[in-house]
Design a protein that fits this description.
This is Calcineurin-like phosphoesterase domain-containing protein. It contains four helices and four strands. By secondary structure, the chain is of the alpha/beta class. Helix 1 runs parallel beside helix 3.
């Protein structure tokens, strides 16, 4: 994650210097509020450790902390967690989950891939 933060910071600084507006794309979950909630039925320490380990692999709040310091970053699109998730806005930055989900895991809300994909599309405007 240290390498990712360093590289992204360099790219965002260059974009800011060049007066560019940024749409940031990442596979990983960039904000802790977008990670899976701890299931209420986890009562054993072993389950808690597994939950913490899984969330650690999904993404890092450090990325959101960095992105939110750049006023030229307006949108972040991410994936890695399946299913549909509502957009999250912090300050000027809105996070969109673009994952379509996995049909065999019953994560689709639509009957077929095309309609699931169409339902996940987002229209954004940058002025």
């Amino acid at each position: 994650m240290n390498l990712v933060i360093t590289q992204v910071q360099e790219q965002l600084t260059a974009a800011k210097t060049a007066d560019k507006r940024v749409i940031f794309l990442t596979h990983f979950v960039p904000h802790h509020d977008l990670l899976w909630a701890r299931p209420a039925h986890f009562s054993k320490p072993r389950y808690e450790r597994v939950y913490e380990m899984v969330n650690a692999f999904l993404g890092s709040q450090r990325l959101a902390d960095l992105l939110e310091t750049y006023p030229n970053v307006y949108y972040t699109f991410y994936g890695h967690v399946h299913g549909r998730h509502p957009a999250l806005t912090h300050g000027q930055l809105t996070y969109f989950n673009q994952a379509v989900g996995v049909r065999r895991r019953h994560e689709w809300q639509a009957a077929d891939f095309e309609n699931q994909w169409l339902a996940s599309l987002q229209e954004i405007k940058i002025n």
